[in-house]
Amino acid sequence: MAARGAAGTSGAAPGSARTIRPADALYPGVLCFTSGMRCLLLVRFVSSFCLLLGAAVLFFALAGAPRDLAPLVDAVSPKSALIIVFAALTLILGELDARWARRVRVGLGAGIVVLAALTLVQQGLRLYPHLAAWPWALLLSLDVGIPAGAETFRAVNMATTAALGFALFGVALILLERLGRPVVLWTVQLLCAVCFMLALMVVMIHVMGVSFVLDGEAPAGREAGWPAAAALLLLSVGLYFGVSRHAEARAYYARYEDHKIIGVTTFLLLVTAVGAGLAGAGILLRQSYEVSQQTLKQTQASKAILFHDTLIAAQNQALRVARLVGELEGSHLRSLFLGLNDSRTATDGAQKNYELAALEIIEPDLGRTVALGEIGGETARVALREPANTWLVRRGAWLLESHIPIARAGGFTGTLVTHIRLHRVEQLLEQARGLGQTGALVVCAPRDATSMQCLPSRQNPQHGRVMLQRVGPPLPMARALAGEEGIAVAYDNFGVNVISAYGPIGSTGLGMAQKIATAELYAPLRERLGLVVASVLGLTLVGAALLWRLVHPLTSRLLETRAYLQGLTNSVPEAVITTDEGGGIKTCNPATTALFGYLEPELQARKIGALFAPTSAVAERADELIDSSGRMRSTGKVALERLGSRKDGTSFPVELTVTPFNLEGKRRFVAVVRDVSARQAAEEALHRSEEMFRALVDNAPDVIIRIDRGHRRLYANPAFETITGLARHAVIGKTHEESGMAALVSLDWYGTVDEVSETGQDKVVDFTLHGPAGPRFLQVRFVPERARDGSVQSVLALGRDVTVAKQAEAVLRESENRLRRITGHVPGMVFQLVSAPGAEPTFSYVSEGASALCGLASETVLADAPRFLDLIFDEDRPLFEQSMAQSARGLYPWSWEGRIRAGSLGETWVSLRATPTLLLDGGVVWDGIILNVTQTKLNELELRQSRESLRLLTAHREAVREDERKHIAREIHDELGQLLTALRMEVSAVGMAFGRDNPELDEKVRSMKTVINQTIQTVRQVATSLRPAALDLGLETAIDWLASEFCKRNAVECAVAIPGEIALDEVRATALFRILQETLTNIARHAGATSVSIKLKTTGEEICLKVTDNGRGFDPEEAKQGGSFGLKGIAERVLILGGTMTIKSAPGQGAELAVCIPAADPASGGVQ
């Protein structure tokens, strides 16, 4: 909303004097009666409350909460709750100005329109499908009937008034995002007002207890209407106040504030008129409602009594017939039947009204049945509680069927069944048509504990079974069957909203309900209410038109006048304040808030005396304007200076002018406050500038003289007296000769002054002054001083004594010559290199040795530093620049070696050494020397070649030694081993041949065999030490063997970790084996370890061996200096193979030896 807030501020009228606060930037009060912050809080409260209401209804509906826990579930339909949630989210998102938020708001508004329109279309077409409650209840109005079961949630349909109001509200939300034209703005506000009035009307009607005028024909389960209307009322208020967040609305009402006044007045007038009209109409409707109910109840009660009397009379007629039948013979029975039905013989009313339709005598003893009369087929039958053994039957007409036991002449017994036609009941049922098209008289009897049986009626010609139990209040007929009397407005068993008067029919067990649809009964009342509302709206519109015609010209002129005055006061840079006689601030312009730092509401809560310091040196006349209590004195126009006091406590000088005037008979004051801080500061600055200029000039060490066009001196500072020995007052107003200066200065004084005066250009000259202290060297700058027209009116001479500088220049020249002679004999090039920020390095000094070093003269290197840098080889240039940058960053000594192209000398190795110094501007200067180290490099190369030859020779020697060991081991093992074996066999043969007969010989032979076996074992050990046979099986096997032998001989725990078979040539495998063998030997001799770990692994291009022990450890540096031949031998083997060796150890902490050699023949190697 930041963008919209900014747009709205810029669109305000130029004359607005209001200080916009953060909340007002969002809701500036265009349509609000209160502040912008309160409007914002109101919108947030409304949206939050409605969001919680809709969410609660949806939650309880989805959770199937019982009614006693969620009474609003039946009061608000799920669709209304969903629409309320959509509307609340739209108001909440109204504070966001992102594109996605605008799209979401439009989508939510369209969803509200669609959901409400579906309800209106369904109610117009009276189309209510029979569907399950979920999820269709969120989209459609359903015919849910009156199902029996637990008192849980069922679908509640949306009310017509709520659907109409929400449809209009959704249209307003969609149009709210398109306020480009005034007609759209007015349409949105009109829709908002219509929604508000519609919701207000519904709420008032429900509050006054005349909600029946809103009930129409709808399926059972429609919402109460007033909760949704109350939510719509709140949402309309929120939308009404939320319109002002749009820049278009703020800009429109800033231009046409009279429209806002007329619109708000008309709306308030409409609310008042509609409220008063509805209140009066509600009282009349309530009285009519009560009269209608009382009339309906009295009619039903009289009909119930008449119905009961009719049944009793018919039963009496049946008993009379039974007496007559018992007295007659069978041959006279037909005559009796015909005589009773003969209208000419009927003399009493009972006989006329209770015609005997049929007669039947059942005599089981004789096994016969006598029937007289004809009746139609039975369509309905209801048993009566009293009289006993009677039934109310429908056989083409209403009949009372009575079963009466009789005893006839002759001793025969049986049962008489009479069917008495009930003409009066038919008349009662026909009289129900007089109530209207939907009027009906319903008679029902209980069938079982859960249902009742109703006789055919006008609405239901068929005899049917109706459930007694249902969700919601019990049916009126159920109350009548329970013996209750009364009148109720409810949905009947057909789902139609009716008003029903109910009660029991005597003690017959029947119940009677006389009902009529509320839509028909209250149609005249609704027409009256509509006439009242239409009349109120018409009168309000007429009043609004008259208000517009009469008030609009006045408000327009008033607003124009106010805008003109505000424009004047707002354009004034001074603070303009109006106060009452008590000093209370009434109005102020923007300059006031800017000057004192208060917001406009804060100023209006203060008195004008609070804006000035209570005591100050310039407030002697304060009593002429403001008394001690801060009240304004009723004096004439007053102007004085005081100290103003800002909100932050700072004080500043002001000029205050107060003028009294009268407004509507009351004394008022206009105070104009002007900040004079700048004026006083300028005056003080001018004074300080003059003092500073005089202090600088009088104390300046340089000579300052002003000379006019006639060569006369206008001013001379004290330095003039010091350097010339002449008094200042003696030379003021005199020329060069008149003051005696011509003998002291060797300069064409007049010619220089005339040249500067004519050309208007500065000129600097050097000359010698012969003063009292001897000759002095002066540098004088002649500057022209111009008048307002640009002409030169005088010349300013600024003379500086440069005697010391001249002497220093001479000393410096001598010092440079001495340095040049010294550095000329230094081998190499002595230099000073300067690197300034953002510039290329340059030489500030180069010795003459540059020519011998690089073939360039020192002057050439000084003049063209890049030319010397270009002599560096391209391969060495990056290292040169890197070392230079590192030295500059850390101020480390600069050290570099590289090659340059030294002219005829060709490729030359040089060594640079320099010391950096940081300059004040952030640059660095190096003082150093560059030496020719070509011969040193050649010597180093020869040394490396010699070492390489020595390494190759050592490797060859080691290979020859290993081959010799291998050859000797094979010879010992093959030749000597075989000879010793043969000797043993021969000795064994001698013992076997002669030992049995010669015990001494046998003992001697055994002794010889023992010696021979020892010799064979020794030979094997010697061969193994020279060349272990395990090496022929691979390095892994050899290491395992060596480790196991070491553990056996030294009782040390060994752990060997080898990843698997490693492909390695014989030379490297033998070398690694020997290294491990030497390492284990050292551990056994010196370490005193109890545990040894051996690890062999490959890392791509290298093979690494790591040996770790937990022995006593040692210092590796001392071991190197002490001449440890074991470690040196290992290092020599590693060096031969081009590998690396690392030793980690410390006294008492064991030792670790790590050796890595390349898997292929290396080009070079090293030892760490």
UniProtKB/TrEMBL annotation:
SMART domains tied to this protein: HATPase_c, PAC, PAS
All copies of domain Histidine kinase, residue ranges: 967-1161
Domain PAS span(s) in chain numbering: 561-614, 689-735
PROSITE patterns named among the record's database cross-references: HIS_KIN, PAC, PAS
Transmembrane segments: 41-63, 75-94, 106-125, 155-176, 188-212, 224-241, 261-285
Gene Ontology terms for molecular function: phosphorelay sensor kinase activity; protein dimerization activity
Protein's UniProt name: Multi-sensor Signal Transduction Histidine Kinase
Native organism: Thiobacillus denitrificans (strain ATCC 25259 / T1)
